[in-house]
Amino acid sequence: MYSFGLRSYRKKRFIRDLTVNQTLSLKNDFGNNYNVVIVNRINSTAIRTLMRLNKSSFEYGTVHIIMGQTPDIFYNYFKTENPLKLLKRARQLHLLVFTSDDVRPEDIAPVLVYLWGEFSILNVVAQIPCSWKYRTILITYRPFVKIRDTYGQVQLYKLSDVLSNPLILQNNLINMNEYQIMISQFERYPTAVRNPPLSIKESRIYRNVKDTSMFYGLDGVIVSELSRILNFSVSLQENENNNYYGMILRNGSLIGALAEVACRRTQIQANTRFFAGITSDWVEYTNLFHFDKVCLMVPKSEQVPKWAKMYKILRTKLGITIVAVILLSSIINFFLRRCTGMSNHETFWEMYCLALGCYNKNVLYANPQLPRRIFLGSCMLFFIVFSTILTANLFEEFSTQSYYPDIDTLEQLDKSGLVIKSSISIFRNNSNGLSARLARKTDTSWKNITSTQLAITTKRYAAMGRLQDAKIQIPTKYSDEEGTPLLHVVAECINSVYMGFIVSTGSPYLLVINELLQKFHEGGFYWKWYSDFGVALIVEARAHSNYTHHDLKPFQLRDIQSAFYILCLGLGISIVGFFMEIYWKQIVESWKTLRINYLKHIRR
């Protein structure tokens, strides 16, 4: 048996010989129950449609021509060949040449069916050049032709018809006649949800979802549209092994939905995933059609207590500026006080009264010094502006909820001591000092609770997620009854990533899926679908919320409790000062007596 690849590369041919021992019987394994049809009439309309749509199902770069005597020899060859090697060239065109003169199309049919069922080799053409009866016949297998309740038909074409219309041998994927494709998809909010908002579920745009993917959201709609355009039915594979993305373990084994695709138990994994450079030879990515940023979600900072709101303002630049201006103005006023007869403490007291808006006679009435009048007038205008700003800030703090500063940089996250909970170590390959420290704080161990729930309940974890998803998840899932967010997205994101689906190596659907995904991208459908579901989910969450939001609310005394604390503090200090004034003389006399007695004791 001889196998050689014909490549249009520098017009060279690469030939290699193989010897196959016949140990397996095709007839014993498969029987003879195959539908074989001779095609006598070519549908020219279908050919023109195929040429116009140009949805190719094979790669043009390579043609594999394999020569052998009998179908059993071919069967033994494919059965003993390295399966990964066959899968990697499954989308290429295969030509099987049978050199025996007593081979019939019925004998070849099991080989073609086997190649499709075992390796998903779609475009296979067989020829029997040594047979007088069938030498001008080309044989191919049509897996998407529906015969009663089953699929698959072996068709025979005349060589003259093929030469006139070469595309008739191509298995196009334009219409699969509701052929069943195994697709893995698990529920993931908000890109794959089972119970969408009613406004979306009843929309005419998404009415086909319930009959195809049964998942709403970006991922579910993409599968639904692919099913509608290519006319295939979705066989949703749901079990405990493929309800999460999966990963490659250190020993090289695969788990999760990734393993289901690699083992060909499912053909497409239709949850958008990061292009993380999967090194498995058994899996391929589709076109990377979606883009997002990887960010960290940390617990929302604590709310500022009402009693501390005034002190929060005084700690700001505004409070520091006011105090500095009062001190500087008092010093200048001290040097301008000549010929006024004012004492030192009166000059400082005068400036303090100006800051509070309590103007005394030195400002309200004529002042004998022109420079001092100009200075005091400018101070009046300055303090009017600043007092207005301070009043506005006080009103804003007292009438709204305010929080301590959130974590917005990775440096702040590092200093906070939070543990990063994630299924992947995204800082692993970065030698930067900050990234190395964050990598040591990343926990990739699995638990029965999600990372976001850990961040909310324990306040000791930071969760990793997609930025666009977080903008939907926080107002819909991670907010309290009053609509206050429980998580905060760190403004400095880690990385930007592209995302796509994965398919089994050699999948015959990859080329046509890539073409349609590209058209969806060019038409802007991804962000349209994503925005539709995002807005609908947020609106529904707010409609079902028990919190009634009012722009205006009655002002209560507890809103200004910090002012009463200041009053109580001043009262306490004044009481202490009052008693100190009363007993000051006694305290001084007692101190002098103790000092005298102590000195006398030392002299002795």
UniProtKB/TrEMBL annotation:
GO terms for cellular component: plasma membrane. It is found in: Cell membrane. The keyword rRNA-binding does not apply. It is a multi-pass membrane protein. The chain crosses the membrane at residues 318-336, 374-395, 563-584. InterPro entries: Insect_Ionotropic_Sensory_Rcpt (IPR052192). Keywords: Cell membrane, Glycoprotein, Membrane, Receptor, Transmembrane, Transmembrane helix. Its main location: membrane. This is Uncharacterized protein.
